[in-house]
Amino acid sequence: MTCDGTALSSDTIIAQLKGLSTAEEFFEALDVSYEPKVLDVSRLHIMKRMGQYLAEEYFSDHRARARDALERAYVEFATCSPLSHRVFRVLQQRDPTKTAAPGQTFVSLDSVLKSFGSDT
């Protein structure tokens, strides 16, 4: 909604969101409350998840959908560790429950240090 109570078009809210540069600006623009401590730890994860939610949505409700996506993403990371959700590819690839890809071998730092110490 604008100051005069009229609804923003989906093009307008997208343009507004594209003009934002910090996570805090997204929360303010979409009127979503947050705790700075949570945002400091999980800001990239929250914003990435918001983008994933928006990609799943039909964007006809413009601001309401964007607000809902940001709120859902924030709640997800306010209650759980970013590592438990693994929204970034690098975290998905390093999932300790998955086995290494063929041709990749994990070498622990301890094993390297032990072999180095045995040579001296």
UniProtKB/TrEMBL annotation:
Gene Ontology biological process terms from the UniProt entry: nitrogen fixation
Highest taxon of source: Bacteria
Q: Which residues form a coiled coil?
A: none
Pfam family for this entry, one: NifW
- Give the record's keywords alphabetically: Nitrogen fixation, Plasmid
Q: What is the protein's known function? A: May protect the nitrogenase Fe-Mo protein from oxidative damage.
Q: Which family does it belong to?
A: Belongs to the NifW family.
Subunit text: Homotrimer; associates with NifD.
Q: What is this protein called?
A: Nitrogenase-stabilizing/protective protein NifW
Source species taxonomy: Bacteria, Pseudomonadati, Pseudomonadota, Alphaproteobacteria, Hyphomicrobiales
